[in-house]
Amino acid sequence: MRILGAGGCFDNRIYEVNQAAAWSLALLCFNEMGIAVKETDEAHFIIKGRLGEKNIQVAVEALDADSVQIFFDAQKDVLQVYSWTREDKEANKFYDIFEKKLTEYRAFILCPGCSAKVSSLAKFCPECGIALK
Ligand SMILES: [Zn+2]
Asked: Of 18, 25, 34, 48, which residue is most buried, by most CB within 10 angstroms?
């Protein structure tokens, strides 16, 4: 459910992917969006970062072994009490990139070295160690 606030946006979406994979995909999203990571809490699967004038926080909560809920929260330091501008472009971009990466993650390629099924995002084959890109 998306909540548009003063100078920010909170949203959560559910995905069918395990928590460890969702966590690494979320980190890739931060990287791709140019969000400066300030803190990663790997015990609780929370990433905190900074983009422009906004504090970004993403939490990856496991619902069960194969599904997660991803919370995205972007807020300015100082709340804008009166603003007609929608402040949800970071949330839209984050989920867009996340969904794109999830599709790539689900797509497998065959390793040219050992024919193992490997995520198309992998740079090296986890089975034989050959460089894939
Ligand atoms: Zn291989």
From this structure: 25
pLDDT tens string 42-59 = 999 999 999 999 999 999
Contacts of 103 (CB under 8 A, 6+ apart): none
The C-alpha atoms of residue 130 and residue 133 are separated, in whole angstroms, by 9
- Evaluate if residue 1 carries a pLDDT over 90: no
**Residue 27 C-alpha to ligand 1 middle, in angstroms?**
25
Name the helix (H) or strand (E) containing 74. Answer: strand 67-76
| Contact call for residues 33 and 84 (beta carbons, < 8 A) | no
Q: Which two tokens stand for residue 116?
A: 């193992």
Segment (H or E) for 122 = none
Domains of the chain: residue spans and CATH:
3-107 (3.30.530.50)
Measured in angstroms, how far is the CA atom of residue 21 from the centroid of ligand 1? 20
pTM of the model: 0.81
Q: Which amino acid is at 11?
A: D
Ligand 1 centre to CA of 24 (Å) is 21
